[in-house]
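Let's practice the habit of predicting before peeking. Look at the sequence and jot down your guess about where helices and strands might fall. Then scroll down.
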Amino acid sequence: MGKRHEAREAALQFLFGLDLNADLQVNEESDFWKLRPTAPDVQAFSIELVSGLIENLPEIDQLLDNVTENYELKRIAAVDRNILRMAIFEMLFREDIPPVVSINEAIEIAKDFGTEQSGRFVNGVLDRVKKDLDRPLREPAPAPVPGEEK
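Done guessing? Here is the structure:
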């Protein structure tokens, strides 16, 4: 298993725990990391994902609500909802990660942690998100040129 895949799994587990206990702390000293020890780089990437997702949660949930128009957000299984949130965060805010990588990772994690239908559900939702992206799908977004604005 790759380090980023492991970090995504840890982030999912943290987010699931956060659904149950809003007092969890997103930092290296969190009790979560005592229960799930990982390499420092895995932990750092996982914390980046969770922190970024939480910071952008209203925008992510609004998009998720829009693309799952027949589902009420709170009624989507917690595992699937958090996998979708994490992938959408990567697709919108992590230009160093190609969207197809985020989608593939989300599908694999959904197959491992969700129900029998989770992989297909996650794939379908993220495919709808992908259609509206304004960036390359198979490569990281080009680095900005110094002195030029986006």
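How did you do? The chain has seven helices and no strands.
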